[in-house]
Structure formats: C-alpha cells, structure tokens
Amino acid sequence: MVIKTAEFVKSSGKWQECPEPNIPEYAFIGRSNVGKSSLINAMMNHKDLAKTSGTPGKTQLINHFLVNENWYLTDLPGYGYAKVSKVQRKDFEKLITNYILNRRNLVNLFVLVDSRHSPQKIDLEFIQWCGESGIPFSIVFTKADKLKPNVVIKNVEDYKAELHKTWEDLPELYVTSAEKKEGGDNILNFIQKTNEF
Ligand code: GDP
C-alpha cells in the first residue's frame, strides 16, 4: 500500500470520544518503549506523526490517524509502565479494554513485542485476554535490527512455542525494524487485503 496521506485526527480519553466508527480501523498496542511510535512513523513515512514519547506511559490517550482518507490507524497507549499508581493502571486498563471490546469498526489489533526479549508475562497475559475475548489480532516483533537474523528467528520460534502451550492456531506474526524500515510493508499489505477499498 502506498501511503498518500496520514493525518492526526484526535486524541480520546474515552472510547466513546473516538471518531465516528464509519471506516475500517487498525490499532497498535504494546508495552511502553516497545517501539510503537517508531514503527508507526516508519510505516507512514513520517518523522513524527506518532510522538515518540519521552516519558513512557504518560500519554494515556487513544490517538486516531486517518490514512489515505479511508482507514484509521489507532495508536493505543503503552501498557506495563511500572511507575504509575494502581488507580491509574486500572483506569488505563479500562480505557484500552473498553476500546478494544466496543470499537465495532476495529478490523485488527497489532500487539507489539520486543524481538530481543523472551516472552514477557504482561504481553502473554494481554495476548491471552485477546484470544479469550475473540479479538482479531496479530503479533509484531519490533527492533529486529538489534539482533542477528538467526537470533531473531530463534526468539520468534520460542514465542510460538510459548503460545502453542495454550493455542493450537497462532495469529499472524510480523518481524519488523523501524530503524531499517523493514517489515512494515507486510503489515500494510495485510491491512490492504483485509480492507475493502
Ligand atoms: P514507544 O514508547 O513504544 O512508542 O517506543 P518508541 O518508538 O519511542 O521507541 C523506544 C526506543 O526504541 C527509542 O529510543 C527508539 O529509537 C528505539 N527504537 C524503536 N524502534 C526501533 C528499531 O526498529 N530499531 C532500533 N534499533 N531502535 C528502535
């Protein structure tokens, strides 16, 4: 998919405040610092469309971007930031789970995980919840350029083995590097394929 236009639409503090759900929507989520903003910017060919936030976990808003005037890219706030209070964490969990469960134009959720790490509890729990809730999602490995290719392959295989402990069918997996601008086109192809434009 060629990105002709990508523009910020709005930030929402509640799922009910999100733009009218009248076009297909694709959302991105992951732990703070996973490389979400960098990947979105790389895919959109934009330097700072999604802000790479200085303080992880601070921006707890849902950000909508209109792409090619016919689909929404949604940047969800990063989860798993330790330095927030329990109340803040609960509010935040409510914001994202309500968004995910209620957003009726959501076609797919991309769950980002750092390709350098072994499967982390918080990511596995979130993935588990997506599976149990019947949310269509894919897993995106980020920062692949930081590892040798054979290590990336091994880490992806380890991740699959972990998921296979619970699930027979696995979601689509993507390996990406925002730094090298790799892998984002596979995500965009998937979006094009699953979208009706
Ligand atoms: P976010 O909090 O998930 O939005 O993460 P950011 O996009 O702000 O990235 C967090 C840090 O990881 C920043 O220092 C980025 O420069 C770095 N980073 C993000 N993506 C990549 C990548 O693909 N390769 C490398 N080497 N660094 C990356």
Automatic annotation (TrEMBL):
<dbReference type="InterPro" id="IPR006073">
    <property type="entry name" value="GTP-bd"/>
</dbReference>
<keyword id="KW-0342">GTP-binding</keyword>
<keyword id="KW-0717">Septation</keyword>
<dbReference type="InterPro" id="IPR019987">
    <property type="entry name" value="GTP-bd_ribosome_bio_YsxC"/>
</dbReference>
<comment type="similarity">
    <text>Belongs to the TRAFAC class TrmE-Era-EngA-EngB-Septin-like GTPase superfamily. EngB GTPase family.</text>
</comment>
<dbReference type="InterPro" id="IPR030393">
    <property type="entry name" value="G_ENGB_dom"/>
</dbReference>
<protein>
    <recommendedName>
        <fullName>Probable GTP-binding protein EngB</fullName>
    </recommendedName>
</protein>
<keyword id="KW-0547">Nucleotide-binding</keyword>
<keyword id="KW-0460">Magnesium</keyword>
<dbReference type="Pfam" id="PF01926">
    <property type="entry name" value="MMR_HSR1"/>
</dbReference>
<dbReference type="GO" id="GO:0000917">
    <property type="term" value="P:division septum assembly"/>
</dbReference>
<keyword id="KW-0131">Cell cycle</keyword>
<keyword id="KW-0479">Metal-binding</keyword>
<dbReference type="GO" id="GO:0005525">
    <property type="term" value="F:GTP binding"/>
</dbReference>
<dbReference type="InterPro" id="IPR027417">
    <property type="entry name" value="P-loop_NTPase"/>
</dbReference>
<comment type="function">
    <text>Necessary for normal cell division and for the maintenance of normal septation.</text>
</comment>
<dbReference type="GO" id="GO:0046872">
    <property type="term" value="F:metal ion binding"/>
</dbReference>
<feature type="domain" description="EngB-type G">
    <location>
        <begin position="22"/>
        <end position="197"/>
    </location>
</feature>
<keyword id="KW-0132">Cell division</keyword>
